[in-house]
Design goal:
alpha+beta, Aminopeptidase, 12-stranded mixed sheet, 9 helices, 28% helix
Length: 304
C-alpha cells in the first residue's frame, strides 16, 4: 500500500536510509533529517506490516529565462534489500510523478544512475565538471585572505552575485545558508571564504575532508585569486583536491594540467508541455528541449 508518511514513521524512515545509504556520512544523514526532511514530503510503501520503500520530495524554485518556476526535487528512493526487484521503485515513482504533474512544470532528480530514471521520462539536463588537482600544483600559491569567518548573509550575497552569470539555478535564501553553516559544523564538512584587500568576501567553498584528500562540493569565486587561494587553503597537508564545478567553468585556464571529467548531475521531466510553451512562447517537446533555451550557461548544484 502506498501512502504519505506520517510523523510517526520518521524514525523508521531514518533507519531505512541509514541501512541503505551506507556511504552517506552519519552527520550528513542527521543534518538532513533535522534540518531538511520536514520541509518536504515522503511517500512510502507498506507491506507485511512494515515500511519497505520510500521516496522523498523537496519543493524548490528554479530560474529559467528570467522567470522563476516551482519544481519538485526527488531524492531518497530506497527499498530495503529483502523487497528489491519487485517493482516498488516504479510504483512510488509513478505515484509521485502523477501528483507532481498537477502542481509543477518540472520534476528533477540527481543523475546518480541515469538509465534507471530515463524509463520514467527523465532526461539529463545538467552536467558538472570534476577536476582532480595534486598538491604540487599549489606550491607557489598563497592562501592569504582565506579564513572560516563569515556570516550566512555574506554567503547568500555572493551566491546571488555569482549566479548573475548563469541560468537554471535554484533560488536560495538566508535559511539555506544558515542550514549549510550548521551542516559544516559536524563531521568532515567545512566552509572557508576568501576576502580581498578591501575586506570584501569574493569567494567561498563548501568541502569535505579525508585524511589525505579533500573534495570541493561547491566553490564560488569572483576572480582567479579567490579561486586559487581557497584551493590552496583547502589542500594544505593533503595529497590532492577534487573540485566540482559547472560545465561552463574552465579551471584548466588556471591549472593547465588539470583534465576534467564530465559527470551527469541533474535529470528533469517536463510535465505540462502546453503550459510551458504558452509561458515562453515556444514549441518544445521535452525537458531537454526546454533547458536548451537557457540564455546563459547552467549552474545547478543543490543536492536536496
Amino acid at each position: 500500500m502506498i501512502r504519505n508518511a506520517k510523523n510517526a514513521d520518521r524514525q523508521v524512515i531514518y533507519d531505512i536510509w541509514r541501512q541503505v545509504y551506507t556511504n552517506m556520512d552519519l552527520n550528513e544523514l542527521n543534518y538532513f533529517f533535522n534540518r531538511v526532511y520536514d520541509q518536504g514530503k515522503t511517500v512510502i510503501i507498506e507491506q507485511d506490516d512494515r515500511i519497505i520503500s520510500t521516496l522523498h520530495a523537496q519543493p524548490h524554485v528554479l530560474t529559467m529565462k528570467q522567470k522563476r518556476l516551482r519544481i519538485n526535487y526527488l531524492l531518497g528512493m530506497t527499498t530495503i534489500p529483502d523487497y528489491r526487484m519487485r517493482g516498488h521503485m516504479g510504483e512510488l515513482m509513478n505515484s509521485m510523478l502523477d501528483e507532481s504533474s498537477h502542481q509543477y512544470l518540472f520534476t528533477v532528480i540527481k543523475a546518480f544512475h541515469p538509465q534507471l530514471y530515463e524509463k520514467f521520462g527523465f532526461e539529463t539536463v545538467c552536467w558538472h565538471k570534476q577536476y582532480r588537482i595534486p598538491a604540487k600544483v599549489f606550491l607557489k600559491c598563497e592562501d592569504d585572505g582565506v579564513s572560516r569567518s563569515f556570516t550566512s548573509q555574506e554567503l547568500l550575497s555572493l551566491y546571488e552575485q555569482f549566479t548573475r552569470h548563469f541560468d537554471g539555478y535554484m533560488i536560495r535564501d538566508l535559511k539555506y545558508y544558515e542550514n549549510l553553516t550548521q551542516r559544516a559544523m559536524g563531521g568532515d564538512c567545512r566552509i572557508c571564504v576568501y576576502r580581498n584587500e578591501q575586506d570584501e568576501l569574493t569567494g567561498y567553498a563548501f568541502y569535505r575532508e579525508t585524511d589525505t584528500d579533500a573534495e570541493v562540493k561547491e566553490i564560488l569565486y569572483m576572480d582567479s585569486t579567490a579561486l586559487s587561494r581557497i584551493l590552496k587553503f583547502i589542500i594544505r597537508r593533503k595529497d590532492a583536491v577534487t573540485v566540482n564545478v559547472s560545465a561552463a567553468e574552465k579551471l584548466e585556464k588556471l591549472f593547465p594540467l588539470a583534465i576534467p571529467r564530465k559527470i551527469p548531475f541533474l535529470m528533469a521531466k517536463l510535465h505540462q508541455k502546453e503550459l510551458f510553451n504558452k509561458l515562453y512562447d515556444v514549441h518544445i517537446q521535452t525537458a531537454s528541449d526546454a533547458f536548451k533555451l537557457l540564455n546563459k550557461p547552467m549552474y545547478n548544484n543543490d543536492d536536496f
